[in-house]
Amino acid sequence: MASQDSFNQWNFAWEKNNTKWHIQERHPYLEKYTDVLLNGRKEVQIFFPMCGKCVDMKWFYDNGHRVVGVEYVEKGVVEFFQEQGLEYVVEPVEQICGNLYKTADEHLKIFCCDFLKFDKDCAGLMDVVWDRGALVAIEKGDRKKYVKLMLSILAPGYQYLLSTFCYDDWFFSGCPRTVPPALVHILFGNHCNLQHLETRDASERMSERMDIRPVLEDFWLITEKNLK
Ligand SMILES: C[S@@+](CC[C@H](N)C(=O)[O-])C[C@H]1O[C@@H](n2cnc3c(N)ncnc32)[C@H](O)[C@@H]1O
């Protein structure tokens, strides 16, 4: 379980509408790599760990895919459905000590709980993952547990797109946390194929939150080991 401090901070951020990470449009890099992720498939189950109210979930739902998200803060989940104009039903799920919010057709599900309580019994295996603001948001001490959990819910042939940040964290150690390329290799390299797709300079964009330069954002494609 993540620490109570961390839950309090996220609750507070949502309460104050301090959700600067949220973007109103599709994420340009998820959009850019959507065809790679789908790999010719028309219907996948796509996973959004620590999803917030990410609008890309609606895009995949509208395009015939099954969408699964996990978000701790209920306000974020409710805002997602309301802002996207989607009706939902809520049911308690004992196993996660939380609630499941879902569309009537059950093609879009958001589990409202601590990510570390989620497992493959909740929604089955994931064909595609969009990991943005998740690995970089969790506390350092939870990273190994996070990766173990992610690996346990991946379907054969999965395609996993990961965004990480890299900067000198001497003066700033908040979220997004720095996860340098060497650490990505340590966390995933033994278990998966890891392809570094590209790096963008995020210094300008992040300058409101951290007065550090450079801040680099890396994008990674993670696939099953020994598959190309
Ligand atoms: C940086 S935001 C990213 C949101 C989303 N991935 C996006 O790209 O817009 C991190 C999100 O994770 C949620 N969160 C933090 N800790 C969590 C946990 N232990 N389990 C589930 N969600 C968590 C926060 O409430 C917040 O909405």
UniProtKB/TrEMBL annotation:
It catalyses: S-adenosyl-L-methionine + a thiopurine = S-adenosyl-L-homocysteine + a thiopurine S-methylether. It is found in: Cytoplasm. Its EC number is 2.1.1.67. Pfam families: TPMT (PF05724). Belongs to the class I-like SAM-binding methyltransferase superfamily. TPMT family. It is an enzyme of class 2 (transferase). Keywords: Cytoplasm, Methyltransferase, S-adenosyl-L-methionine, Transferase. This is thiopurine S-methyltransferase. InterPro entries: SAM-dependent_MTases_sf (IPR029063), Thiopurine_S-MeTrfase (IPR025835), TPMT (IPR008854).
